[in-house]
């Protein structure tokens, strides 16, 4: 199973995981989050992020999800990426996380595609749907 690692601003990652737990009625395995506070130095958070990454990687790889590309959490994530082994997607939302949880038994390429489409497909105008 591919591990999941959320690196987000503040407690957003943990909140998303808690919402996923509510939907799924259990806490999924191999998922961690690192919340980055405004006063945190990204270089100080990087060693902790590397250690957390190791905890969710059981040999199948890890998908890192972050909130805003270009912001501190994404910049930390960028330093961890390794093509085909540790991949990353920005713009995490609950539909994206749920899709990732449902497709992480597949290969990394499939997981990336399904996760990204889940995030996009979860955004819609409710009155037009």
User: Per the principal axes of the C-alpha atoms, what is the gross shape?
Assistant: globular
Poorly predicted residue ranges: none
Distance between the termini: 34 Å
Count the E strands.
4
Largest sheet: spatial strand order: 2-1-3-4
Outline:
The protein is α/β, with parallel strands linked by helices and 129 residues long. It is built from five helices and four strands.
Notes on the structure:
There is one protein chain. The chain is α/β, with parallel strands linked by helices. It has a single domain, classed as 3-Layer(aba) Sandwich (Rossmann fold), CATH 3.40.50. Helices cover 46% and strands 18% of the residues. It contains five helices and four strands. A four-stranded parallel sheet has the order 2-1-3-4, sandwiched between helices. It is globular, with a radius of gyration of 14 Å.
């Amino acid at each position: 199973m591919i591990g999941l690692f959320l690196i987000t601003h503040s407690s957003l990652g943990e909140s998303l995981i808690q919402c996923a737990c509510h939907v799924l009625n259990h806490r999924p395995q191999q998922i961690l989050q690192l919340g980055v506070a405004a006063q945190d130095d990204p270089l100080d958070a990087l060693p902790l992020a590397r250690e957390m990454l190791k905890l969710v990687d059981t040999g199948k790889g890890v998908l890192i999800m972050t909130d805003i590309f270009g912001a501190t959490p994404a910049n930390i994530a960028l330093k961890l990426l390794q093509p085909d082994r540790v991949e990353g997607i920005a713009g995490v939302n609950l539909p994206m996380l749920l899709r990732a949880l449902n497709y992480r038994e597949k290969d990394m390429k499939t997981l990336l595609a399904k996760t990204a489409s889940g995030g996009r497909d979860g955004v819609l105008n409710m009155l037009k749907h």
